[in-house]
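Inputs:
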Amino acid sequence: MSTPVPEATVARLPIYLRSLRELAEMGVKTVSSNRLAELSGVNAAKVRKDLSYLGSYGVRGVGYEVRYLIFQTSRELGLTGDRGIVIAGAGHLGQALANYPGFAQKGCRICAMVDVDPEKVGSELGGVPVVGPDRVPEVMDQNPGAIVVVATPAAVAQEVVDRFVAAGAHSILNFAPVVLSVPEGVAVRQVDMALELQVLSFYAEQGERSASARRVQSVGS
Amino acid sequence: MSTPVPEATVARLPIYLRSLRELAEMGVKTVSSNRLAELSGVNAAKVRKDLSYLGSYGVRGVGYEVRYLIFQTSRELGLTGDRGIVIAGAGHLGQALANYPGFAQKGCRICAMVDVDPEKVGSELGGVPVVGPDRVPEVMDQNPGAIVVVATPAAVAQEVVDRFVAAGAHSILNFAPVVLSVPEGVAVRQVDMALELQVLSFYAEQGERSASARRVQSVGS
DNA sequence: TAGATTGTTAATCGATTAACAATC
DNA sequence: TAGATTGTTAATCGATTAACAATC
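Outputs:
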């Protein structure tokens, strides 16, 4: 049993991967932790520490081979093969996601959409079959390791998630503006623009306060 | 000078606020740190610590008055008055955001969109005027404390941000899949579904590994 | 008063990072 | 070899949380 990869490290691996792909694109063969850190907006020691969780893939005095590191990082993230995605909720957002071509590009395959609307169940939206909630266990069995994308109204998100977790879901991307409660071992990531805007509002207010303080200061001095 | 509010605390205030609004909606007058913690998916001690940065707004033996705490939290987040938003990039995403009715609901006012396309500049999209990049300083001056939402292609995001920062922007919500580099004192929040999916892929893979290990175990035993 | 709950201290925990021996 | 850079240790930092005196 190796050391578990810390959450903070897992969250940074996709950023490194993006930087590495850019380098590969540019024909760069080898990269130092320093350069990779710069491209990824982090500290070089952190890069080395993070990468050390994957193994010893660097060469002292030389750096990391870009293509090999891409391979190892992708492998660690489980980005080999194609990853199934099940969309819960076939409303506006769900349909927009189903039509989004970026998924296939990134090695993701949308297996199904789940909705309660009998008008939608049985049809296809954006080439993806829509099934009823009763078929959740079946969908999850047929697509082990699928990521569930929650695009339902907030009011029903928790019960929907409970159903998916009971059917074996381990990974959930939540667009509904609610805190989901899930058992140990289930990973949840949240995408919530309204929340982010409120956080930024705090700093915008702060920025304004110090900006006006500076204005007062310079007028006063 | 009071203690600065830690970043982690600022990021949680909008979650508390959402829980508090739900409680108010339900007619609840008073809430304990325990209940608020439960609703917000965090530890009760953390709630009390976080709220203590705003001031002493609780009553020992009783709890926090919901309406008053909503007021204080909103004030701390700068959610009083209306917050200006400038959208950089009038493409698909930018237009979708301009048409999103949720902004006005949350006390946000979209001041302008900025785009380089001469076809778009001078027009209105979703009721929002589109201006050229040369008018960025003017827009930021007229809307102090505005949040910049970056909805441009990744390739130009950094230069666009540089322009806005030079014009006095303090808060940036970035939808472009790039790491932005900004000076000290400028806040950036990132919304990136592809990144979140890759993080979840890691845990989906892990979940599958342990699930299949369990299957092997139970077959073997 | 007795019970409840805050606000805060201090312990704990985990993540970050400087520093440097190992080594290409 | 000399210079560069990794991998890892240990110090530092900040965030979390248990515990409890204060007090309604």
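Remarks. Chain A has two domains: 7-76, 83-190. Residues 6, 8-9, 43-46, 49, 59-62 of chain A lie near DNA strand C (CB under 10 Å from a C1').
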